[in-house]
Amino acid sequence: MGKRIDRAALHVVAALALYLFFAAAFRNIWAAAACALCAMLCLRHALSGLTGRLPQREKRRARVLAEVERWALLDMQAAEKEARALLEKAYPGQTEGAEIVMALRHPQGPPLDISALLDLWRGRADGRLIVVATARADPAARACAAKLTHPAVCLVDAERLCALLSKFPPAASEAPPPRRRLRIAVSRERAPRRLLFGLLLLLMYLLLGNPLYLGASLLTLLLAALGWKKPPVPRRLFE
Question: Which residues are listed as membrane-spanning (predicted)?
């Protein structure tokens, strides 16, 4: 009962704050009430979707970790086949001519170090080598992999493997397509334009004093910042 009262009080405070904001912007009671109502409905829809996505994200992460553990228990040939299929799906055409070698270790075991990486690299034919490890690689091994040549090495450790499996889940574990939701595209390509547009809106707010320009500016600058966020999965195997 107490949680319901707190939730109702929070809704009242949020509705009042939104009404005062739009009343100051439009100088009209009915327009402010209508905008506050629409904003409350949109905010409630967004928050309900967020609270529903968090448990799903944890379940998806648990499934991905279980999939990596399953790979660690496969024989070398079966694991290599699944790894090649995953990499072809994530990087179409980029694995052609590259040799894939597996480092099958339990994900919770010791990380892949430089010695293990060099043992996999030595004696390989010149070209490109993809090392897929089911355990995390330590920073020294990652730095070493970037410097190796003849063959050049792309290291896909458990951390990157989890990101790939999360983005490209196996066909057997793919869930039915979710309901279509309103999504705002956030990309690095659009970030510079959104940054410029957000700064222009901020300048309009400073010149005219209309709080709507401030709200639109902050939202646009937030989308621009999200666009510059580093993607979890690199776009290319070999740089």
Answer: 195-228
